[in-house]
Amino acid sequence: MNIFTNTVVTLTFELFDADGTLLEATETPITYLHGGHSGMLPKLEDALVAKKVGDFVSVDVEPVDGFGEYDSELVKVEPVDQLPADIEVGMQFEAFANADEEPGSGIVFTVTDIADGKAVLDGNHPWAGKRLRFDCKVVEVRPATADEVEHGHAHGPEGHHHH
Q: Which pLDDT belongs to residue 163?
């Protein structure tokens, strides 16, 4: 079966930066619903159309098609006494514009430096501004169920339950 809209695709991938450094690799294959349901970068989805099990795809993704350009406005310097006592480089915080925002909707800031009683918080995605290369191998393709199409995402083998 070939990949087209409303097929459920399982694939493995390796993600490299422009220098060929491996940034991330799947330990277990990932599954997504194909067809613009936001489960996958659009440029990567486009490259996977009509592919089948065993096919290999390598896609170069510019920042605009990936995680956006680097935005210096998203870098903030905060006094450490206003942050958790156990703060360290690499920690992440989610910040909200309003107190009533849902978790997961704010900007995630990563602590990139701590010096002189101040912490540098960077709200950019770690891969913002980077050219990336996704090397993907198609492991499985199957038709999506009506439920999956309705919900806009793939479900596990035992179905999907909304709580």
A: 44
State residue 159's pLDDT score.
55
Task: Identify the structural domains of the chain with CATH numbers, from first to last.
Answer: 7-67+128-147 (3.10.50.40), 72-122 (2.40.10.330)
Q: Express each pLDDT in 98-128 by its tens digit.
A: 666 666 667 889 999 999 999 999 999 889 9
Say if residue 21's pLDDT is above 90. yes
Q: What is the pLDDT of residues 140-160, one digit of tens each?
A: 999 999 999 999 999 876 555
Decide if 9 contacts 48 (C-beta within 8 A).
Answer: yes
Provide the token pair at 67: 């995680």
Beta strands in the chain (DSSP E): 7-17, 22-25, 30-33, 56-61, 75-79, 92-95, 107-115, 118-122, 132-143
Structure-token pair, residue 45: 């989805």
Half-sphere exposure of 15 (CA within 13 A, CB side): 17
SS3 content of the chain, % helix, strand, coil (to 5): 15, 40, 45
In sign, the C-alpha dihedral spanning 11, 17, 20, 21 is negative
d(CA 53, CA 59) in angstroms, rounded, equals 17
